[in-house]
Amino acid sequence: MSDTALSRAAAADAQENSSLYEAAQMQFRRAADLMGLDGSVRTILEQPKNEIIVNFPVRMDDGRYELFRGYRIQHSNILGPFKGGIRFHPEVNLDEVKALAAWMTFKCALAGIPFGGGKGGITCRPWTMSEEEQMRLTRRFTHALGTNIGPDWDIPAPDVGTNARHMVWMMDTYLNSVNAHDRNRGRAVVTGKTLTCGGSDGREKATGQGVCFALESWAKDRGHKLSELKIAVQGFGNVGSHAALIAAEMGASIVAVQDHTGATANTDGLDVVALFAHWKETGSLPGFAGGDDLEPESFWSTPCDVMIPAAIENQITKERASRLEASVVIEGANGPTTPRAEKMLMKRDIEVIPDILANAGGVIVSFFEWIQNRNCEQWEVEMVDRRLRRLLLRGYQQMKEQARKLGTDNRTAAYVVALARIESAYAERGIFP
Ligand code: NAD
Fold it and tell me: Are residues 125 and 248 in the same domain?
């Protein structure tokens, strides 16, 4: 078992020197100190409530069995069931999933939706696996989780490397193995499903849509017209592509896009619909006729007003932050800015709209999907977007009010709003027993 997914996972677990969880803790502690968060609440939130690790075999297409490691971290359920995505990626490890789960707790609290925070993932390379292998992987993982997930307990959703197909396989496995009796409401065990299988209209684009509502709020605050703004987007998956498409529809100019295949740029604005078609056809961004190929590192110094990192974490490093030309970073991805980069951005007066607000659109519309499943309803996309916009704008205003009141940065202020809600829930309920 020299180079199995399992040994890669173990190696990744051991390598904690660039701890994402530590970065998440630093953000949490900064806000907790500033607001004087109750000591007991602070102690509880420092660590996740449950850490579930499962190792399980999956039959590969060539008949071999490979052992995979999956994680489900349940950080907090004081405000409602654990909620958060499932990631398929070779870098998935305990530290990363713990950080992502904690961010979900604060994201849901800030949005004012009745969910706690969770996250999961499997250390794997989905792009090297066939559809059948991915299906067996997803089903075995869901089976291994058993009653650790459920519509009233813990509700997964898509994240990097997973999409609606994976969610439908999870739902089907759960309904067939754990909850065979309540097949209608039981669909709410996962969100981000296909429309036919209980998904919500507007869920697929929801995170990108939310990023654009955050953009709209920031532009209004700063007195900018959207049509005047030049935007660079990193990541052209679910979040990045929808953010780019919607921002372009709103009148902004997308001047550069980068993903793991490379980058393309056009100072007059890329035709994002044509770029999307090119990417669908070729699987990569370079070679797009409507733009010039760009060296991946040059992407970070593209002259623009808005930088939207929407790929993976730790992308805006201190060095890249020192070269950024934007006035604002709107975090579509989770944890894209390292703590050192954040200091550099502050020093350079580049504003940050933090992930726990900017990418909350996904979990907010997941909440709408969950309600629809439980009530056997199907909302129209206009209603979904209207409600999403209201919650996103409310979160933005509350964050800004706190930032002004406390004289602090947006991220710390967003945490303060979220932590105050969690603190109130503990104060009202008391800590068991
Ligand atoms: P995805 O798998 O659909 O897309 C990921 C994108 O990142 C791809 O375009 C990929 O090419 C790019 N990428 C990966 N590694 C890269 C690298 N080293 N350099 C440049 N580009 C790279 O994932 P997604 O669902 O769009 O998620 C993106 C981010 O948004 C993640 O941080 C995720 O946690 C966060 N997020 C997603 C959702 C959601 O609803 N999908 C919700 C909230 C937050």
Answer: no
Catalytic residue among 119, 193, 205, 230: 119
Rounded to whole angstroms, the Cα distance separating 291 from 269 reads: 9
| Closest residue CA from atom 7 of ligand 1 | 311
Counting Cα atoms < 13 Å in the Cβ hemisphere of 185 gives 8
Q: Based on the domain organization, do 130 and 170 belong to the same domain? A: yes
To the query of whether residue 230 is one of the catalytic residues in this protein, the response is no
CATH of the domain at 118: 3.40.50.10860
Q: Which amino acid is at 368?
A: F
Mutate to test the pocket of ligand 1, among 275, 278, 312, 369 (most ligand atoms within 8 A of CB): 312
Question: Which structural domain, as residue segments, surrounds residue 244?
Answer: 206-349
364 lines ligand 1 (CB under 6 A): no
Domain count, the chain: 2
67 and 154 part of one domain = yes
Distance of CA 261 from the midpoint of ligand 1 (Å): 13
| Contact assessment for residue 385 and residue 209, using Cβ atoms and an 8 Å cutoff | yes
Average pLDDT over residues 132-147: 98
Q: Which of 239, 241, 285, 388 to mutate to test the pocket of ligand 1 (most atoms within 8 A of CB)?
A: 239
- Given a cut of 50, is residue 322 above it in pLDDT? yes
Cα angle, residue 258 at apex, residues 161 and 27 outer, rounded to 5°: 70
Average pLDDT over residues 224-233: 98
Residue 410 lies in a domain: no
Q: What ligand 1 atom has the least distance to the C-alpha of 360?
A: 43
The structure's pTM equals 0.95
Question: Is residue 388 situated within a structural domain?
Answer: no
Q: The domain spanning residue 341 has which CATH number?
A: 3.40.50.720
Conformational region of residue 235, where left means phi above 0, alpha means psi within -120 to 50, and beta covers everything else = left
Q: Whose CA is nearest to atom 43 of ligand 1?
A: 359
At 175-197, the pLDDT tens digits run: 999 876 777 789 999 999 999 99
Residue 6 lies in a domain: no
Please check whether residues 213 and 176 belong to one and the same domain.
Answer: no
172 and 238 together in one domain: no
Contact 190, 170 (CB under 8 A): yes
